[in-house]
């Protein structure tokens, strides 16, 4: 059984994961309109992934005797000055989500809810991967700069950039 404090914190994380899905979806729409089909596909895929993170939390709350709440979401930004700005915002957002997960883990320890603490370890590991991926993509965008040929190749190749490749890139540092 979840404590009320932990149920409330988990419901807040459900909202954050839903908003993360919306952030990626908005970025996908922006990229698609700009003709960046590869970037759009990458973002659509990650929007779906964030929604799955939300659903995993929803099911957990409900299965533990709580009541998952689906709340109103803050509308994401719809315009970006360029890819570099967009991916910087994405990286910053992933850091925010990591901090939120860490705070949630802290609540599980305060509440002595070790089952939920254990459940959240998947999110802790997932956020390490998400941050590594966002950082890797941002680094690549920064390398390209204003090179149109590099941007074309990046757009073509981004769908092949996976969490595993980003993790292996950072493991070699």
From TrEMBL:
Enzyme class: oxidoreductase
Xref: SUPFAM superfamilies: Ferritin-like
Keyword Iron annotated: yes
Transmembrane feature ranges: none
Keyword Metal-binding applies: yes
Catalytic reactions of this protein: 4 Fe(2+) + O2 + 6 H2O = 4 iron(III) oxide-hydroxide + 12 H(+)
InterPro entries: Ferritin (IPR001519), Ferritin-like (IPR012347), Ferritin-like_diiron (IPR009040), Ferritin-like_SF (IPR009078), Ferritin_DPS_dom (IPR008331), Ferritin_prok (IPR041719)
Occurrences of domain Ferritin-like diiron (ranges): 1-145
EC number: 1.16.3.2
Subcellular localization(s) per the UniProt record: Cytoplasm
Record-linked Pfam families: Ferritin
Annotated keywords: Cytoplasm, Iron, Iron storage, Metal-binding, Oxidoreductase
Summary of the function given for this chain in its UniProt record: Iron-storage protein.
Annotated family: Belongs to the ferritin family. Prokaryotic subfamily.
Name assigned to this protein: Ferritin
Organism: Flagellimonas spongiicola
């Amino acid at each position: 059984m979840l404590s009320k404090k932990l149920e409330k914190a988990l419901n807040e994380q459900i909202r954050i994961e839903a908003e993360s899905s919306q952030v990626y979806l908005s970025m996908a729409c922006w990229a698609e309109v700009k003709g960046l089909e590869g970037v759009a596909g990458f973002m659509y895929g990650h929007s779906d992934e964030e929604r799955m993170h939300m659903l995993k939390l929803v099911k957990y709350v409900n299965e533990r005797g709580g009541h998952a709440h689906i709340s109103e979401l803050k509308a994401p930004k719809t315009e970006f000055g360029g890819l570099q700005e967009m991916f910087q915002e994405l990286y910053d957002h992933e850091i925010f989500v990591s901090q939120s997960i860490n705070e949630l883990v802290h609540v599980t320890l305060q509440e002595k809810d070790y089952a939920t603490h254990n459940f959240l370890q998947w999110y802790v590991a997932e956020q390490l991967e998400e941050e590594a991926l966002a950082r890797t993509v941002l680094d690549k965008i920064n390398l390209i700069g204003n090179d149109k040929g590099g941007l074309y190749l990046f757009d073509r190749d981004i769908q092949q950039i996976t969490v595993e490749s980003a993790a292996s890139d950072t493991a070699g540092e």
